User: Fold this.
Amino acid sequence: MAMRIAISDCLLGIPARYDGGTKPCPAVILLSRQPGVEVVHVCPETAAGLPVPRPPAEHRDGRVVFADGTDVTEAFERGSAACLERVLAAGVDFAVLKAKSPSCGAWMIHDGTFTGGLVDGWGTFAAMLRDAGVPVFTEEDVERAVAFAQRGESCDDSFLPLVCKALGLL
Assistant:
């Protein structure tokens, strides 16, 4: 049976980021190409109809704002809800999302000052997935799982068993 994984488009090399670029992650691309893995592509920001490129956005005072102060919370929530619906309908096993993103960040996000600072927190989409019970990982977690394998260490002892299983390491 296939393992279904929701993956941020930018991590797969698809131009979806605010700056019009990508953040291809070799470990995530490797994961996406494993036998038996089905990818559900996600980008809540483009799902909301936000353009590529667009101004950078960060969470500030419970809202999502562009650097110029424009409140885009509703767009982020709308795009995240659309992606959540697709992910749940597909029955994904877990998600691999872009770290620190205002939509996809898990555990840490940018602090709302647009200076590169970080705070504990969750992106809009990542929080929706978490609240729906979908395990959320970032590209940094996948890179750690691949590093376990390269060092010949057992992935069983890591906190990433789902990722390791999808990589064929378990």
